[in-house]
Amino acid sequence: MIEFVPLPLIDDFLINYNVGQALLLLFVLSVLAAIPLGSRKVLSLNAITFGLVFILTPASLAPLHYKFLGIALLVVAPLLYITARR
């Protein structure tokens, strides 16, 4: 029986890119998925979560500018959450 194991696919993807680029792709896809919901609170919670992920990613896996992106998300996203009505 042949089983589908996605690990080699993920490994082949990450060989060409660093982890910061993969996280940025996931962030963009999650923002695009949250836009149809029409909720700025969901978008801001998503941005807060990815801001933490960008900051907590070790420097050996992602370049320094992704940490700055995480700091920017952690500054802007709570402001977006506070100003959101729904």
Automatic annotation (TrEMBL):
<keyword id="KW-0812">Transmembrane</keyword>
<keyword id="KW-0472">Membrane</keyword>
<feature type="transmembrane region" description="Helical">
    <location>
        <begin position="15"/>
        <end position="35"/>
    </location>
</feature>
<protein>
    <recommendedName>
        <fullName>DUF8006 domain-containing protein</fullName>
    </recommendedName>
</protein>
<feature type="transmembrane region" description="Helical">
    <location>
        <begin position="42"/>
        <end position="62"/>
    </location>
</feature>
<dbReference type="Pfam" id="PF26028">
    <property type="entry name" value="DUF8006"/>
</dbReference>
<keyword id="KW-1133">Transmembrane helix</keyword>
<feature type="transmembrane region" description="Helical">
    <location>
        <begin position="68"/>
        <end position="84"/>
    </location>
</feature>
<feature type="domain" description="DUF8006">
    <location>
        <begin position="5"/>
        <end position="86"/>
    </location>
</feature>
<dbReference type="InterPro" id="IPR058319">
    <property type="entry name" value="DUF8006"/>
</dbReference>
